Protein 1
Amino acid sequence: MRDPVLVPRLRPFASTVFAEMTALATRTGSVNLGQGFPDTDGPAGMLDAARQAIADGVNQYPPGPGRPELREAVAAHRQRYGTSFDPESEVLVTAGATEAITAALLGLTDADDEVILLAPYYDSYAAAVAMAGARRVVVSLAQSDGTFRLDLDAIRAAITPRTRAVVLNSPHNPTGTVFGRDELAGLAQLCVEHDLIAITDEVYEHLVFDAPSGREHIPLGTFPGMAERTVTISSAGKTFSCTGWKIGWACGTPEIVAAVRAAKQFLTFVSGGPFQVAVAHALNNELPWVERNRQALQRKRDRLSEGLADAGFGVLESSGTYFVCADVRPLGITDATELAWQLPERIGVAAVPVGSFTEGPEFDHLLRFAFCKQDDVLDEAIKRLRSL
Ligand code: PMP
Ligand code: GLN
């Protein structure tokens, strides 16, 4: 047997920081604010709908594009942004957003095409670009005063004749940034000008905080010229607190959706039949629950942000997602990555180093903490962090 057996293009992706950190947290009995998953269940009506679907015998392969009631519910839901998708030809149900992103890259980018990723970026993007045989081109977000923006000049400078696609995640994991209208309009313009495909990861679309400040989720696909070049991706995991169900979707023109489906059908073919029924129910009926959950998460963000500040961290602004980032330098520490791997043993708290969301050193002073946890769990973590 060759050694190592893992092919070179996947060697950088042998394990994920989330899985490793959760394993370390479990081994050390730590409070796990690393991997982003809630520790409470989603809406009871949705859970009942899944149980009922199983009892009703919805247990065989769903149709390739997804169950019709879910495609219809997704299309109806997207109308909140003023976009119309035909449930028949413009919506594809996937095994979570992860599969949708991977299938989009496999179906829409070719060997040696360049794909722009905006760092820090969710880990699966780079792995999926590698699987597609494409080349990732990494452009960092611009940082100033603890906030992040799209660096449109740097993105423009990174575009070459080989650039095929850009992946945008907003609300943004790990920074909690919700990108604003002007910067999104600028990115849309670059996509149109250079004939790029946009792959948008909108899994935190409902988790935007501080609405009175005017912050809102604006899908990139809604800007002029973008409908025909955008794969709009989201999933149920974060919106309905069911990250283990892995029901996601991709929306776009019939041509784009057909390209994504061509790859998707040979990844999983289909998945999650009874959960598709339940998520359709949730999209149609549980948005009031989603709003209450959003408000609760905003309070949790405040609770953890204050606790981190009391513990001596430099806390960055989080306007959405499950996450808040904290600068370790005020604690007299420079390397947050090293700290992240020590914290579980030292004080029994797990967080994720932002450095693991990119290859460069520019985020090495930041830790990402997940606040999608019960208040007593957050309080225990804060108590332990104060001992640092
Ligand atoms: N994108 C981002 C930014 C995420 O944080 C996650 C993790 N939930 C995913 C995609 C994956 O979503 P799913 O579980 O629906 O595959
Ligand atoms: N999206 C979650 C996070 O960012 C983790 C998902 C995973 O473990 N792959 O923490």
Note: Residues 96-98, 122, 169, 173, 201, 203, 235, 237, 243, 246, 248 surround 4'-deoxy-4'-aminopyridoxal-5'-phosphate (ligand 1) (CB under 6 Å).
Protein 2
Amino acid sequence: MTTRTRFAPSPTGFLHIGGARTALFCYLFARRTGGKYLLRVEDTDRERSTAEAVEVIFEGLRWMGLNPDEPPVFQARNAPRHLEVAHQLLREGKAYRCHCSKDEIDQLREQQKTQGLKPRYDGRCRSRSAPVAEGRESVIRLKTPLAGAVAWEDVIQGPVRIENNQLDDLILVRSDGTPTYHLAVVTDDHDMGITHIVRGEDHLNNTPRQIHIIEAMGWTRPVYAHMPLLHGMDGAKLSKRHGAVSVLAYRDAGFLPQAVNNYLARLGWSFGEQEIFTMAELERHFDIAQVGRSAAIFDQAKLEWVNGHHIRATAVQDLVPPLLEQLRRKGIAEPDPAYVAALVPTLQERARTLAEMADKALFYFVAPTAYDDKAVGKHLTAPVLEPFADLVQRLDSLEGWNEALLEATFQATIATHGVKMGKLAQPVRVALTGSDVSPGVYEVLARLGRSESLTRLERCLAFFRRRVAE
Ligand code: GLU
């Protein structure tokens, strides 16, 4: 049997990071078992489902590399098929028309509440003999077994059992003739040949109801895996209150998709001590049966740490496009990709996100307009003025411009003046970047190029001279 999973988002907003984790688990399960991962857009809520929301979900999934193995299915288009199933159940006596008015149902509910009972439909129309007034609206309900229980072995939750007397007769078709959510989900899962349903724990209560439809139709039950939900560091369900929850917000904040996938897979699942996984490793090792039952706590700092690892492990040419985007966001209109590629290795070691990398790269594009006060106070001191001025002079008369030549020039200058390398390098940093934290000075000088470097050094030298003279 080929396994088939599906991710079934409702396109009513954005792709939530929790939804993305569900998609990832479906995808990884399919990959590990040599099966197929499908996508179904649950767009039956016509008012809330918008084309933009669908596009945002597709974009988020594309970004994460979770592209379905078959074209996506749009649930709303299958409504005639859903109704066909309901009518089959009706014909076979497994479903019935319920003519209860809203008032009648409300009354029943009130009665049950006063008796301290859980409000549920009592199935009175199963055997309604009284004739129904012409034109009276009806719904189609499933005949839920009156006794017994629904039980299944959940891959993550373990054995689950719900007594049937806890469930009422589920509505399959509403009075306006539209199929309900459960009918649509079950029918589509069957028609798509889904063998494994991997979804959030919030759907656990839906499962017994959906199983009843499956049984009534005589279909094969899929295997269920209900994943624990994502929680914030405070233990509450992850929501906007905790910061970014949309997947694309993570892209925009400078995270790499491989890092987000790595982090989300590792949340609630472990593989020895290994923290960092490539997508290929996840596809090989991820085992949904090993996912724990407790809530997964989303820790932004850990995600940044994982992202930092992936930034270091990613080839320069793959970092360039997202870094260009980050630079544009920071106002660098048309960063040259070749120039950016040359900068990446100087910044790759320390950045936790590409947004941070872009911040640290800004000086490569824009000369400092001011120098950091503290750095000036610390490094632009009188005894360094002469060596610094000499260095600028020597650099100015250099024949070439590369890291080896630059280093030799620095070495010669410190030898002449008997100063430590740090004493000379720090004012150079200030001159080039405005602050005393930056990649190595030779790297920076080499990338800025001769003319830009000398302009910045000379401007700083003038400032330095004025400062010492004062
Ligand atoms: N459309 C549902 C949701 O967005 C998922 C349904 C399912 O996975 O069965 O939560």
Note: The first strand starts at residue 4 and ends at 7.
